Input
Amino acid sequence: MIVNPYFIGSFILLIFIMLTLDLGVFNKKIHKISNKEAVVWSFVWIGLAMIFGLFIYLFLGVEKSSEFYTAFLIEKALSVDNLFVFILIFNFFKVPNEYHHKVLYWGILGAIVLRAIFIFSGAQIINFTYLPDFTLFGVLIKELNIILTLFGLFLIYAGVKSIGADDDEEKDFSNSWGIKIIKMFFSVSEKYHGSSFFTFDNGKRVATLLLLVVGVIEVTDVLFAVDSIPAIFTVSRDPFILYSSNIFAILGLRSLYFLLANFMHLFAYLKYGLAFILSFIGIKMVIVPVFHIPSPISLIIVAIALIIAVVASIIWKPKEAQVE
Output
């Protein structure tokens, strides 16, 4: 199904308007984001995603709408891992609280461009890596895709491995590729100069530490996209559905970040839920040539996994959270 160009144009226009309002109007003045503001913007972005999914239902049908909501929820869930790392990055570089929003804004703006490249190029590559149907041990194998199968195995491995992974609060980000790339093009003054990305040192234009932090955020997002992008390809092969759901999911990450930083106890056991989701999606990718799990079922399973993880975190708080 070819998506109506006006539909695509409306999506692009909506994102442009919201990004302009976000930084150019509501957050024009540099300030620390309050919990109330973070909650409001979280509801705004989630609400817009729900409404956009409704329009997809009205114009493209229930199947496409289900794919959109499922991909949105998967990307939203897996992106929470990014936020935990963002907290570590900001702590490592001692970024003042009032600059967090600006760094995340530009980091996510870069992610919008990179995700477009990953999703649309990935869709083309996947289309060329299907094997002809064949029979194995009496079972008909249909539409086996080499790339998706390999990614599925990787996601199963990543899910199992993440269960035993410890949060590395002392991780050193000073050797990040983001910093190395920026230093290839700019001289760097490794200090903060207000909210500026560039300043002048002895008459020479140099990058500030704040720009280095943006570079680290961008590279971190690329690394996490290795998990999340293949995962949503289990939901749909439609690049527009995948990209629009992806963008709505990551645009709300900034407001979610500020809530996460203040309510860590609500996410104590989330890593187990995310590990299950990764493994489930990986299994779905591997078995799809034999058995297809419909998008509505996937949506329910992912939602239940997230709800259980959050409820468990609230009921069985870690000892350190109980002491506080």
User: Anything to note?
Assistant: The radius of gyration is 21 Å.
